[in-house]
Design goal:
This protein has 149 residues and is an all-beta fold. The chain has no helices and 14 strands. It has strands spanning 5-10, 15-18, 22-29, 32-37, 41-47, 50-54, 63-69, 72-76, 82-88, 95-97, 103-107, 110-117, 123-128, 133-137. A hairpin with a 2-residue loop joins strand 11 (103-107) and strand 12. The radius of gyration is 14 Å and the shape is globular. The chain starts with a strand and ends in a 12-residue tail after the last strand.
């Protein structure tokens, strides 16, 4: 758990960060899990899934989440204002969103989706050339638990 900014590097293995206001994390391989993020994120893993849960109190600045070989799942609160640019590139490439208004475009090696939540805002760039991208609506959890596993 971290109340302030976090910078983490790892060659191999999973990284899990909770309650961070600013995250910069990089892993050669392993799953990255970021929970209750309130600020900008720069996160990348070579091989592994990336899961990010943004807080309803998030003050997001331009952010980037990337995995070379894995899926990205992002939980966004309904009130967040953000412009999403998502590119997935696997053979079964998909960008699936719980939010309406995303424009999908097939590319030679995948699919690209763009959309604005709440009229847009800072850019959230999602890159998964070897996987799929899931944009999910974060649920308020009265017990303070997390949907991230």
């Amino acid at each position: 758990e971290a109340a302030g900014p976090v910078t983490a590097h790892n060659a191999a293995g999973n990284i899990r960060i909770r309650h961070a206001s600013h995250v910069r994390v990089q892993s050669g391989s392993g799953k990255l899990v970021l929970e209750n993020v309130t600020g900008p994120v720069q996160a990348a893993t070579g091989y592994g899934d990336l899961v990010a849960l943004f807080s309803p109190a998030a003050h997001l600045q331009d952010s980037r989440l990337q995995t070379t070989a894995g899926d990205i799942t992002v939980f966004l609160p309904s009130n967040i204002s953000v412009s999403v640019e998502a590119t997935a590139g696997a053979d079964d490439a998909a960008v699936l969103s719980d939010f309406p208004g995303f424009v999908l475009r097939r590319l030679a090696g995948g699919v690209e989706a763009r959309g604005n939540l709440n009229h847009g805002g800072p850019r959230l760039r999602l890159l998964a050339p070897g996987g799929a991208i899931y944009l999910k609506r974060a649920q308020n959890n009265a017990q303070g638990g997390s949907p991230v596993r």
